[in-house]
Amino acid sequence: MATAHWSAVAAPEHVARYVWVVTRHEIDYRGNVGVGQTVTAETFLPAAPRGARFDRCVVFRDAANKRIVAARSTWAMLDRASGRLVRVPPEVAAPFLP
Q1: What is the per-residue burial (b if ≥16 Cβ within 10 Å, else e) of 11-37?
Q2: What is the pLDDT of residues 47-63, one digit of tens each?
Q3: Per-residue pLDDT for 86 more than 90?
Q4: How many domains would you assign to the chain?
Q5: Which of 9, 47, 48, 54 has the greatest number of beta carbons closer than 10 A?
Q6: DSSP for 5-30?
Q7: Calpha distance 71→85 (Å, rounded)
Q8: 16-35 residue pLDDT tens
Q9: What percentage of the chain exceeds 90 in pLDDT?
Q10: pLDDT for the residue 12
Q11: In whole angstroms, what separates CA 24 from the centre of its chain?
Q12: Residue 18 sits in which domain range?
């Protein structure tokens, strides 16, 4: 979901220049999803990037709007050509911030 969000929202030149890797996941399970059950998912950035890193949150809710899974992942941005960490430029982060 995070990579689909990046591909859909980021400028094409940013998608071509940068790649993201996950450095940490935290997941809280508060319920189960049964076979055939429908859930909705929301992804958002709770704060601006810090250097090369930013956190992305994902929340899954059941049909009653109860939060059943909440995840927070830390991502780091790499320059695609060199493979090195790079600071997230403001123009890359802007479309994803509230």
Answers
A1: eeebbebbebeeeeeeeeeeeeeeeee
A2: 889 999 999 999 999 99
A3: yes
A4: 1
A5: 54
A6: HHHHHS-HHHHHHEEEEEEEEEEEE-
A7: 23
A8: 999 999 999 999 999 888 89
A9: 78
A10: 96
A11: 12
A12: 2-96
Q: Name residue 64's amino acid.
A: A
Q: Report the C-alpha gap between 81 and 93 in whole angstroms.
A: 20
pTM assigned to the model = 0.81
Q: For position 84, which CATH number holds?
A: 3.10.129.10
Phi/psi class of residue 65: alpha, beta or left (left: φ > 0; alpha: ψ in -120 to 50)? left
Residue-wise burial string across 46-56, b where 16 or more C-beta atoms lie within 10 A, e elsewhere: eeebeebbbbb
Residue by residue, DSSP assigns 62-75 as -TT--EEEEEEEEE
Q: What share of the chain is helix, strand, coil (3-state, %, to 5)?
A: 20, 40, 35
Task: Give Cα separations from 14 to 36, 43, 94 (angstroms).
Answer: 37, 20, 12
